Amino acid sequence: MIIVMKAGAAKKDRDEVLRRIRELGYKPHVIHGATRDVIGAVGDERGKAVLQSLESLHGVENVLPILQPYKLASKEVKKESSLVRISDDVVIGGNRVIMMAGPCSVENEQQIIESAIAVKKAGAHVLRGGAFKPRTSPYSFQGLEEEGLKLLAKARELTGLPIVTEVINPETADLVADYADILQIGARNSQNFALLKKVGQIGKPVLLKRGMSMTIQEFLMSAEYIMSEGNQSVILCERGIRTFETATRNTLDLSAVPVLKEKTHLPVVIDPSHGTGNHHYVAPMCFAGVAAGADGLIVEVHPDPEHASSDGPQSLKPKKFEAMMAKLQLFVEAAGRSL
Ligand code: PEP
Ligand code: MN
Questions:
Q1: What range defines the domain where residue 137 resides?
Q2: What's the pLDDT tens digit per position in 60-79?
């Protein structure tokens, strides 16, 4: 249920509503709107009628059911787009299209520093790089783990770029959070509910990737797991889904952008690197992602893709990335946004 407060309702009225929600055995989540606050009361669906009684409290406008199975992620709870603040100058979900770029995996100091400098020079806002890699094969490179996180922190210190890096299990989540500005949940872990709850408790911004066989509704239910733990800073990432098509690594579902924009207030980012698996297709899909309304892009860039430890075929060389960024500027402007 959502409890809609009157515009300008007093703090003491809101606190009383929060107290009553808790007393009834529900978990309240305050969502600050432009003109009024709404409070999500999430818990056992069977007690809806009891919550309806809150309508008589001072400062309450009305009490409404949330029709979607996802609650806090739903547009029903919050009409305006959410802004996810990463640092003083990086905010995802506003007018500016945020570019996250860097190698699939952190391989060594030279590689990550060179990548960071190159993507920064080309205009990226966030550095990506995996230290814990969830590989399809147990025999593939699994990442440098904490050593990789330290190298990412070094690259951040040098360039000022915040970092997004993957967390693969609850046991190492606190360690990753000590270094990362954004915690990435990979496609293979997008329904790892223990991990989703853990990053919800940590509270740092989360980049949640869509699972390769996930419906939009399941995707939003995964976001709900994070949000129901009290973390509203969730960024959704479409990274391609599995279809019958084999010409591309995955099928990048660009229609997910307008669909998500209709259903949720959370920002949406497109990953054309994993979405296509081929560096030739990355630029056109970046342009199309912006045209579709994406709030950001995440792209793999490697100084030497031929010798990359992972995802070389889909990684752009720095020069190509720079050229793409210049052209992207035109699409961003045409969409009425900035880069
Ligand atoms: C990655 O970002 O390198 C990655 C493993 O992505 P995904 O989880 O989308 O496959
Ligand atoms: Mn990758």
A1: 84-334
A2: 999 988 888 898 999 988 98
**What predicted TM-score, i.e. pTM, was given to this entire model?**
0.94
Q: Which ligand has the minimum distance to the alpha carbon of residue 165?
A: 1
254 C-beta neighbours (distance < 10 Å), count: 19
CA 23 to chain centre: 33
C-alpha count within 13 angstroms, C-beta hemisphere, residue 255: 4
Do both 244 and 325 map to the same domain? Answer: yes
Pocket-forming residues, ligand 1, beta carbon under 6 Å? 104, 130, 186-188, 209, 239, 274
pLDDT value of residue 197 = 97
Q: Identify the CATH number of the domain in which residue 160 sits.
A: 3.20.20.70
Per the model's pLDDT, the better-predicted residue between 217 and 51 turns out to be 217
172, two tokens:
């190492």
Atom of ligand 1 minimally distant from the CA of 134 = 5
Instruction: Look at strands 84-85 and 296-300 and give their pairing.
Output: unpaired
Closest atom of ligand 1 to 188 CA is 8
pLDDT in tens, 17-27: 999 999 999 98
Q: Is the CA virtual torsion 269, 293, 337, 280 positive or negative?
A: positive
Better-predicted residue by pLDDT, 144 or 8: 144
| Closest residue CA from atom 5 of ligand 1 | 186
